[in-house]
Each structure stands twice: as C-alpha cells, then as structure tokens.
Amino acid sequence: MAERPAYPAAHPAEVRVVSQRFGDPRAATLAGYLDTGGYQALGKALGLNGGEAMAPEAIIEEVKKSSLRGRGGAGFPTGLKWSFIPKGGDKPKYVLCNADESEPGTCKDRLILEHDPFAIIEGITIAGRAIGAQRGFIYIRGEYRYVLDIMQRALAEAYAAGYLGANIRGSGFSFDILAHTGAGAYECGEESALMESLEGKRGIPRLKPPFPALSGLYGCPTVINNVETLASVPPIILRGGDWFLNIGLPKNGGPRLFSLSGQVRNRGVYELPLGFPLRRLIEEIGGGVLGGGLKAVVPGGSSTPIFTAEEALGLNLDYDSVGKAGSFLGSGGVVVINDRTCMVRFALRVMQFYRHESCGWCVPCREGTNWLQLALTRFHRGDGRPEDVDLFTDVAQNILGRTLCPLGDAAAMPILSIVRKFRSEFEDHLHGRPCPFAAESSAVPVA
Amino acid sequence: MPETPSKPAPAAGAPPAPAEVHFTVNGHTLAAAPGTLLIEACRAANIEIPSFCYYPKLSLQAACRMCLVEVEKIPKLQTACTTVVAEGMVVHTETPTVQAARKSAIEFILTNHPLDCPVCDAGGECELQDMTFRYGAAVSRFDEPKRHRDEQQWSPVVYYDRPRCILCYRCVRVCGEGMDVWALGVGNRGILSTILPNHQDHLECEECGMCIDICPVGALTSGAYRYQTRPWEMQHVGAICAFCGDGCKTTLGVRNGVILRGDNRDKNGINGDFLCVKGRYGTDFTRHPERLKSPLVRDASGELRPVSWAYALETITDRWRGIQAAHGQFGVIGSTRCTNEESYQLQKLARRVLGTNHVDHHRSADFPALFDALAQPAGAAARPLPQLADSGALKTAKAVLLVGGDPTQEHPLLAWNLRWAHRLAGASLYVLNRRDIRLRRQARRMALLTHGTEADAVRYLAAPQRGDPPQAELTAVSPPGDKRWPQTPPSTPQPIPGGLEEFRAELAQERDVIIVFGPELTGDAVQALVRFGASLPGHTRYIAMADNANSRGAADMGLYPDLLPGYLPVSDGAARAHFAAAWGGDIPAAPGWNQRQMVEAVDRRELDALYVVGANPFRLDPVNAATLKSCFLVVQDLFLTETAQAADVVLPALSLYEKSGTVTNTCGEVQSQRRGGSFEGAKTDLEIIHALARMLGADFGRPDADRVFSEIRAQVKGYAVSLVQLMAGRGALAVPLNSAVPHQAAPQMIRPNHDSLFTAGTLGRYSATLNAVMEKHSRP
C-alpha cells in the first residue's frame, strides 16, 4: 500500500463530496472503501442491496437532475452528454475517464486518483451502466505514472471482489476497466486527441463532427468525462440529483474542487459549492496574498482569460458568473498573482507552456505560439518595439477561433486578456527600460 | 466493424435521399450532390478556395486553415475542406474576415519558412509562392530568429528540407493511403513537428516519389533532379513512360535537348496522380555516357568501328541484297519499346521487302490466346459490351479478379488503380496467386496456391468437376476500414479450409468483374479463364498484363511469325491479300520462326541475316558465337547490349522519349506522344527502317509517325481509334477482336521479365538513379 500524503482537515466552508475520503487511509483498499460508504451507489444502480435496479435512463435522469457540469474545462452538462449516446446498435460503447490533468494551475484530479481511486472506478461503472457500455478506460496523464500503480491496484481489487468483470456481484451487468497512461502531452487532454492516443496513434485532435457520442474511441459511441465529474456520480446516485443540485446554484449543481495556487498563503485543493465568492477563497481559505497585494487572478486554469484584482474580488465562482465576467471556470485552477509580478513575464511563461504543448497539427497554434513566445522573450528582455504590443494581440487574435481544436483558443485567450488589462506594464518595458519587476519577480520562474 | 461493399437496400418507408442540395456561395445559388465537400462544390463552380492540406481523394486534415470561409449562422470560420454542403447553407468566401484569415495563415506558415526561393527546386512551381502572391502580405511582421535544420537525404531520390516544410501531411497520406507503403510519418510536436522517414534516417519504400510530387513546396526534392534547372527553363513535353506496360504519362522536363526529369505536373494522363520510380527517375538512361552516338561496323580485324550513317546503311543493304539474291533466310526481331508505327513498318519491311515471316518480339503475355477466346463464333451477333477494360476502369470496378502477376512490382499503375478502387469505391478484390503478393492487403479474398499453378487453378474454376482441385489456402482479409491514417494494417490472414470452391462461390456472387491476369496464364488456360469469366454474372472484362511500354503494340502490329497486324493469320489468303494490296507487294504465306527458332536456325547456319531492333534476344536465347559468324547480324539499339556486341553492324537509335508516335499499353489504350529530348548522332527506328526500305527499292514514304499511324488506323483491326481522344492526350482503347485467332501456341515463348519496381531490362541497367535505388535496397 502506498504511503498517502497527509491531507489537511476540511476548511469549514468546504462541502466535502468528491473529497469526502481525502486523507482517509481506508479509501486505499476496497474494504476500507466499502466501510466508508463505497459501492452503495453502484449497489443502488444495479439493485444489489435488495432494491430494484435502476433503469439506465433513470441513472441518466438523476445525473441530469443534479445539474452536474463537466469538471474538465468546458462545463458541458454531464447527463445531457450521456443521453446523446444512441440506444442499442451493433457497436460497443465506451466510457472514457479523462485523467490527463495537465492544465497549469490544476491538480485536483490527482488528489482523487491518489486518495479515492475506487470512487472513480465506481463512477465509471455507473456511467457504463447508464449508457450501455461494457468497457471503460482511464487515461492517466503521463507524468502521473505512479498514479497508474494506484489505479491498477484498485482495479485488481475491484476485479477480485467482483465489482468489475463479468456479471458484477451477480447483477447480470458486466463491465471492464483498463487504466493506461499518456506520454506527457497536454494535447491528449483534448477528448479526441486522447482517443487517438489511447488507440495507439499520435495524439492529435480529430475532425468534428462526428462527435464522440456517435463515433469516439475505435469509432464507437463513447462518453468521455473528467475524473472529478465521474467521481461525483456515485454521491449523486446515492443521495439524489436534487441533493447535489442544492449544494450549488441552479444549472451549477454541486460543489467542485478548486485548485488554489500562486502567490497565496494556503495553496491547496478545496471543495466549495459553486457560486462561492472568489474573495473568500483567496482571503479566508487561502489566507491572503503572499508577498504583496493582489494584482490578478486566473480563474480556471492557465487557458482562461485573466481577471484584475478589482474584477476578481467581486466574482462568484460558478460557470455562469465567471462566464458573464468574460472568462471561464475551466478546470477550477485558481492562480493568484501578486502586485510584484511582471505580467509580461507571466504572459511569457504561459506562452512557453502553450508553445511547448502545441501538438503542432494545425498552422495557427503551431506557428502562432512559437512566434508569440519568441517575441515575448525579446520584448521582456528589453528589445521590444512599440508596435509589438499590438502585434501580440493581433497574433493571438489570428489563433483564436481558427484552430482545429480548442487548445488554440487556450493559448490565445490568456495573452489577449493580459495585454488588454495590463497594457501599461507592457509599455513600461519599452525604450530599453529594464523590467520594473526584475529584482523581485521570482515567484514566476521563467524556464 | 465489417463493412459489406454492397450497400443494403434502404429500409422500407425511408424517404429517398435528395438528389441535390442547394446552397449559396457569394450570392450565387449552387447545387451539389449530398455529401459533397464545400471546397469541391466551390471549385466545381470556379470559386477558388485556397488550401494546402486538402488534396482530393486523400483523408481530410483541416490543418493548414487556408480554406476558412464564413458560413452564416455559425459564429466561427469553417474549413471548407471539411464542411459538407447542406440545403440552404449560405457561404461567403471573400469577406474581409475570410481574407484576413487567409493572410494570417500565410503569415504563420512563412514565419519559419526560409524564403530561399531563389535556390529552391520548387521555385516557380510552388503552391506557397502562388498563395503568398495571391493571398499573402507584402511585408513580414515576423522579426524573430528562424529555426534552421539541416537538409536530410532519405534515399537516393528523396531529400527533405524541414525549414521549407509547411506540414500539410500530403506526403504522409499519399505514401500511406495512396501507395499503401506508410513510410512517412510525423514526429515530435508543436513547432518541432517534422516529417520522418520510417527507418530513423532513411526511407525504406518503393521510391515512387509520390511524396515529392505531391509536396506543395520544396520540402521534398528529388535527388535525381535537384539543383539542375529552374522549372521555367525547361520545355515540358508529355510523353508515355518507356518502362512498364501500363502507359503512364510522364511529363519530360527538357532543357537544351536533355531530359532532366520525368514528372507528373499536369496529372492529366491515364495515370492521374500516379507515377512510379521508373517513370519519374528512370529517364536518365537517355544521358548515360555509354549511349551509342555513331553507327558501328565490324572491321576486318573484328572490332566494331565508328562509321558514318551512309556507310553503315550501305554496308547493311549491300549484304542484304546479296543474301536476297542467294535466296537466303532473313530473321527480324522487333521491340517492345518502339512505337506502333515503328513496329508496323518493321514487320512490313520484313514481310514485304525482305520477304520473310521470321518475325517475332519478346512476348510476355498471350494476347492472341485472349483475343481468340473472346472472339465470337463467325456469324454470331456482335457482343453489345466491350470485353476489354482500360486501366481507368479498375478505379470504378465493383469487383476485380487478379490471377497471377504482381502488379505492385510489375504494373504499378494497375496496382495504384486497384488500391484506389478498394479505398474509395469499396471494390472487392479477389487474388489468386502462388505468391503472397502485396495486393493481398487490399484483397477481400486471397487464394494463396500451395500446390499447382495459377493455370491449374483457373482450369479448375472453369470446370470444377474435372480432376482434383489444386490446393489453396484461402485467406480472408479485412474489408476497407478506418479511413483515418495511419490505417491499421490488416491482421495476419488466417488460412481458411475449403480451397478454391469457396473462392469460386464468392466470385459467383459478384457482378461486372474485371479479370486481370499475368503471364502465368497462356494458351488454353486463358481460354479457361474466359470461360469462367463468361459464367460470372453481369459484364466481365479483361486485362492481360505484359511487361513493356509497347509490348501490346508489338503484338497488335503483327510482330509474330504467324500473325499479321491485328492478329490476322498469315496463313489466311484473304488477310494476306488485304495487306499485299495495302503494301504493294506479296507476303510469304508460310508462318515463320519464332525468336528461339531463329536462334536455333543460327546454330544450324540456316539463318543468313538477323535484324534486331530495340531488343536483346541473345540474353534470353544464347547464341553460338561460332555459328553466328555465318549470320549477318544488324542491331539497332541505344546501348551495346549483349546482342549488339555480337553484331556486324550496330545502329544507334533514339529512345521512346526522343521520338513522336503512338504506343499501346497493356490494356490496349493507344496514346500519342511527341518528341521530348534529342540525342546527337542517333536516329529514330522509323527513320532507319524507312531508309533501309528505300535503299532496298521500297518506298515507305516520309518517316513520319502521323502518316504511318494513318495507315495503321486504316489497316489494323481495332486501331480506328478516335484521333480527338489521342490529341486530347487520353488513351483510346484498341479492341483488335477477330472472329478467331489461329495461332501457333507457344507457351514457352511467353517469357516475362518479372521486373521489380527497380529493374527494367536494358533501360534499367543504364539508369543511374534506378541503379542507385537498387543498390540501396540490396544492402543488408
């Protein structure tokens, strides 16, 4: 059994649903998982506990009722996604668990994988039951290699105890799950690239349509969900969609995990009801900004447009509020930036990531991220020209909306918002002036 | 997910699919078949939509983003290459947004492009240049260092220059999807992405050069051509490839009379996009240093000495006249690489002037047997449908039976067309062969013969109740599957018991089969094949595979000891009278000797003169050097072949690329070509034949291919083909079907070369590029 990192006690503001077993060593084994209420949801769905088995449609209905939205980034309603899977048909159907958590500022799925692997297995199995699949896959980020061992041990235990495989616990329902790692590509978090990678091909996005619900893995109907999304399913089935919905806001059901990082005292992963004020997350839970005042906040992972301190402090963390304010809740990766950080350098660091991670398939993302990184490097070095500031915007605009997959937008959106909201900092770098933050801006390393 | 090639009938009550959808582009209402891609629909209406990665009939990429257009009601720009037209769709292709997107795509592509156009082979025929000219900006805003990577040589013919590469993936797809070779892939990611060869630093492939041809820029260049010229300094002359019997068009790039490359720039030959290693790179035999530049006559000391043309021709005609006066025997061996006009005039010279039927050529397919089998009994009503298929028919075939041969190696165009039919038309390919040939990968069913020959198997198919069936392992091969690349190769086939009976039963379910057969079938086996073909439902057509560029033409033009042009028997008085009238002189009635019999006659000192035109018979039929002394041997060729080395007079001939005329491919498609290169000192075979005829007192007229072809059209059965088709550069199918072809069956004279992709008899031996490629492939 792996040593589990100690996990802090819940903050009073937290609502621990997905994180209910975080820090609980019992969740590492099947026996402990069962002791802590595990597999009761699957039992309910399959009618293992004496009750009537739930019809697949009823499972989907419950998830729809919960208003659970995808926790990976796009926030698509989960129940609706499941209902797109055609009924019947000759082709096998698949459930994919997207554990390719790679968005900078996001580390929540890792905790679920480490602390509660059986919840993921249970969630995938319920999803499989709901859409009529017989096989699920967990695609784990390449850098999370050790997580594969955790998952495989858990899968082996689940198989041994009849919670996976043929005729699960005598229910007549058979389901298999295979865990597989990626090889270290951000792009493979994009659902169609993930499928290509899982099929053993180069991890590049597919043309859409067809969408995965009709033609996904191996050309078969496929549901692909984020780890947290699937881990939310057992509590929803067990306690009802209404219960989950009421934790959050209408159309923003439940709590969700927020990864709090950056220049903030109490960095960590917190499960908060949707609609939670960002100010409270930073000040109350996060314990305030480190090393200075608040300058900016990235709300949902590095690809989401940035907020100024002023914008951030009035914001509530739910899909619709953040969307209305011009950004995305994304993967829930909240990055706090203090006022001693150089935003040019921050933009450069973000662009380094996207240049490194662009899959290179289509022209605007491949060439545009390279161009922006080179130009931002030169600019930050002090060799900028006044027209460069508009050039950054223009190049990013030329990526935005013109790429094959959403990751082109992911690269373009942050730079567009940073230049728009912190233009004066860019202008301060011009005319051979040194970076005004050069001496102190060490918290954002530039590789 | 097995797909059946025959579509199931639509469910009862389902509404019929609409024949056309209507949509609007830039205010024009257009119509197209449902499922048409917007880019194709626009191009069909002459609305230009630029693209790099889109290539017709290859899988869709949506990578270059050049074809972005505005579609109303969709907020983002859409790639026209992946958008399917829909009823009521409203499209704009020239709005400021679209123009800005194109300009931006060009700007992005050029950020790391070296812009070394002045020293780039592709300069002047580069799509990036054209697109930049039309859609790009005049000024570059990219002011950062460019990433340089050294050029790589992947094979004797393929060079890759990464900085020029725009990553359109056309090369990857044509190699995989088109050629089924899958030798190219994409490596690394992001800005470091690169095209990679399949073996670390080099390619192991068919060296077809399709990747170079399809490259829109100068990223892939040809080792045989690079840095020699600018494209606009060359004349581009459409020629028919001088190598195999498929008759591909190769456009010769000629500068100062020298053929610098074969190319497929117009893509308007019967081969469409396709050209193989020989058609592309084999042209360099024309400038081999050992090319014969002057006539040679063996002097008193026994050495071949250069002489003038006049002296050489006089030497020949003097000796021939002497032999004629002494009633000696003449033999004539023609070429499978000369034009139809030359072959026709050569046998006319033999029969009408030299008075001999000892005429032959190197045979590699039994055309007389096929045409005899297809002939209807005298008096029967003409069959309503053509029984011969042209090469293009394979592309749209529903089912093909391939018996013997290995098209991938020997008939690359036919193989390309068969793969095309499999990939794009869902054709069912049935393969019957002793060898596990590569086209197994496209076969719906392969019968791999473990005992017995293809001929035995065909006899069994035609008459299963007679005798024991030959044994075969039947293998089922995956049907056309995932259209995305890289395509999963079919799994290893598993033998299925049941032998040929099952193969036969499955074939009997197919309609309109095209039967393609190799040299394994001769004589009565061809007859059996046609009987079997006639038993199949629908309309069966045939292709016989012969080796060389004009093997079929040589046969059609009567280079046989017993057959006149058009397969008319020389023993038939009416046929003889027909040609005697046309040629103004008598034709001997008795069938002559075939090539081997002629050589045997040399050994018996019964052949007094042998005239060999563009052939190397002593390689196949070795001659006794001692007895050869009593035979006056004249050889006309490009090189001093084994036969030419033994000659008394050697005449330097021009190659197929250096003359005008027509050739007929193995399917019977007649095509015309005009003179490409030139070569000082040599003459066309037609000029030489006409000169010899004139000196012997027979006037064949001007050595003009047009005049001779007019005579062929008038005199040779099946050759009254459409001149308009020929002028348009298309193949016109010659169908020389007679009532019957009584022919001296000589199966031992069907002697295929079994060429590989890299060998091609004499021409191949003198092609530096083909040799380099072969040398590379023979390394361990």
Task: Please tell me about this protein's structure.
The complex is a heterodimer of chains A (447) and B (780). Chain A is of the alpha/beta class. Helix content of chain A is 42%, strand content 12%. Chain A has 18 helices and eleven strands. Chain A has helices at residues 30-35, 40-46, 56-66, 78-83, 108-115, 117-131, 145-160, 191-198, 227-239, 241-247, 278-285, 309-313, 319-324, 343-357, 363-383, 386-399, 407-421, 423-428; strands spanning 94-99, 135-140, 176-181, 222-226, 255-262, 268-273, 276-277, 294-298, 307-308, 316-317, 333-338. In chain A, the strands form three sheets. In chain A, strands 6-5-11-8-9 form a five-stranded mixed sheet. In chain A, strands 3-2-1-4 form a four-stranded parallel sheet, with helices on both faces. In chain A, helix 2 packs across helix 9 (227-239). In chain A, 59% of the residues are buried. Chain B is 28% helix and 17% strand. Chain B is built from 25 helices and 32 strands. Residues 1-13 and 478-491 of chain B have low confidence and may be disordered.
Protein traits:
heterodimer, A: alpha/beta, Rossmann fold, de novo design (two linked rop proteins), 3 domains, 5-stranded mixed sheet, 4-stranded parallel sheet, globular, B: 780 residues, alpha/beta, Dimethylsulfoxide Reductase, domain 2, 7-stranded mixed sheet, 25 helices, disordered N terminus
